[in-house]
Structure to design on (163 residues):
């Protein structure tokens, strides 16, 4: 029974590790990739925005093909900023979820440990009681053995005296 409980506990630990570590690892990697991608888009957009602004003539740029190009670059910059904000929010939310899950796991572990300590105390008390009863049994057994010997001696004397 003890081995089964220990095996069940180990399987639960492995399952918890898989369920906690895999999503956490995935989330960290996803947030890092999103952040890196957002930063790369931002660098790209800023590079082209600087080129357009360095040309100086913004009125000519706002018309025609250059206007479309400018709006694409600006939209890319906005997309990059929103991706960075989304990656930070995603990281924050996953951190909160991870913390709450870890806190719940810690509470369950603490309760389990308290129960285990209580059961261990009961087992120790039961073993003490068993040891005390065993000692008492051996003492009573010795007394009974001595009494049987004396009774046998007394009976032997009475047979010898009567006979």
């Amino acid at each position: 029974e003890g081995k089964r409980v220990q095996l069940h506990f180990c399987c639960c630990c492995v399952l918890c590790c898989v369920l906690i570590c895999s999503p956490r690892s995935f989330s960290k990697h996803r947030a890092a990739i999103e952040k890196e991608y957002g930063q790369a888009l931002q660098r790209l957009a800023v590079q082209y925005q600087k080129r357009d602004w360095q040309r100086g003539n913004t009125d000519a740029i706002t018309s025609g093909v250059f206007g479309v190009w400018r709006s694409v670059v600006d939209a890319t910059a906005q997309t990059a900023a929103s991706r960075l904000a989304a990656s930070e929010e995603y990281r924050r939310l996953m951190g909160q979820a991870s913390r709450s899950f870890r806190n719940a796991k810690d509470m369950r572990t603490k309760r389990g440990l308290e129960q285990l300590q209580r059961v261990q105390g009961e087992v120790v008390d039961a073993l003490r009681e068993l040891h005390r009863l065993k000692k008492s049994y051996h003492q009573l057994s010795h007394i009974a053995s001595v009494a049987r010997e004396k009774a046998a001696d007394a009976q032997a004397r009475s047979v010898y005296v009567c006979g």
